[in-house]
């Protein structure tokens, strides 16, 4: 299904359904070595699907929000979800509908942007019209962001928190400055070697 989030329109499916995961990759023309994020409804759910090595307050400072936190995955996740990595990106959008959807679904949702791979990210449903016939449902939450500033289309800031005491910026995204300030100034984490920050 196509869903609105706090950053872009996304495609969501059950992370526990291998056929649905395959369908998302096929629909987007996405390389199977590019991971899908997992969308959850509450910070408390993160502990079920990840090995968390940061304080809970850090999670609560960044989530819900326009950030994807990458941590070591737990055995609770479907083995067919990103089988090439022991890590998983967790997303809790600051969007009431997405939080409600994830909580009502009751399990992890795989989430990625609603566009063909390598094409511009979508801020309204018309921008991914070519995908509609292949989707079970398109949920129109109206336009996302102001649509004018280029930062709008950057998507979430993706942060690797898998190494204790350090962080790595995998994708700068739309919340880089605020995220790095929280990680460095409030929690004293150090940028890892090779990080984009």
From TrEMBL:
Gene Ontology, cellular component aspect: mitochondrion; plasma membrane
On the tree of life, the source organism's domain of life is Eukaryota
Q: Name one GO molecular function term.
A: L-threonylcarbamoyladenylate synthase
Name its cellular compartments. Answer: Cell membrane; Cytoplasm; Mitochondrion
How is the protein disposed in the membrane?
Answer: Peripheral membrane protein
**SUPFAM superfamilies membership:** YrdC/RibB
Q: What EC number(s) does the entry state?
A: 2.7.7.87
Per the record, a Pfam family? Sua5_yciO_yrdC
Give the record's GO biological process terms: regulation of translational fidelity
- InterPro entries, per database record: DHBP_synth_RibB-like_a/b_dom, Sua5-like_dom, TC-AMP_synthase_SUA5
Q: Where is the YrdC-like domain?
A: 1-175
Please list the reactions this protein catalyses: L-threonine + hydrogencarbonate + ATP = L-threonylcarbamoyladenylate + diphosphate + H2O
Q: Which PROSITE patterns match?
A: YRDC
Keywords attached to this entry: Cell membrane, Cytoplasm, Membrane, Mitochondrion, Transferase, Transit peptide
Q: Which family does it belong to?
A: Belongs to the SUA5 family.
Query: What binding partners and quaternary form does the record give?
Result: Interacts with RSC1A1.
Q: What does this protein do?
A: Cytoplasmic and mitochondrial threonylcarbamoyl-AMP synthase required for the formation of a threonylcarbamoyl group on adenosine at position 37 (t(6)A37) in tRNAs that read codons beginning with adenine. Catalyzes the conversion of L-threonine, HCO(3)(-)/CO(2) and ATP to give threonylcarbamoyl-AMP (TC-AMP) as the acyladenylate intermediate, with the release of diphosphate. Participates in t(6)A37 formation in cytoplasmic and mitochondrial tRNAs. May regulate the activity of some transporters.
Q: What is this protein called?
A: Threonylcarbamoyl-AMP synthase
Name the lineage.
Answer: Eukaryota, Metazoa, Chordata, Craniata, Vertebrata
């Amino acid at each position: 299904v196509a869903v609105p989030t706090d950053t872009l329109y996304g495609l969501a499916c059950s992370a526990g359904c291998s056929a649905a995961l395959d369908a998302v990759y096929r629909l987007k023309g996405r390389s199977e070595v590019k991971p899908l994020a997992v969308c959850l409804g509450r910070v408390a759910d993160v502990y079920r699907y990840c090995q968390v090595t940061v304080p809970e307050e850090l999670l609560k400072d960044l989530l819900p929000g326009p950030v994807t936190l990458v941590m070591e995955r737990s055995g609770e996740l479907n083995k067919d979800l990103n089988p090439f990595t022991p890590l998983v990106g967790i997303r809790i959008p600051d969007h009431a509908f997405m939080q409600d959807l994830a909580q009502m679904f009751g399990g992890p949702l795989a989430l990625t942007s609603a566009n063909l791979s390598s094409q511009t990210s979508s801020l309204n449903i018309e921008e991914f019209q070519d995908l509609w016939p292949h989707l079970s449902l398109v949920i129109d939450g109206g336009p996302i962001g102001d649509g004018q500033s280029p930062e709008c289309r950057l998507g979430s800031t993706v942060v690797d928190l898998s190494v204790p005491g350090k962080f790595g910026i995998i994708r700068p995204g739309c919340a880089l400055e605020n995220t790095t300030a929280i990680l460095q100034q409030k929690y004293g984490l150090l940028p890892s070697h090779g990080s984009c920050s």
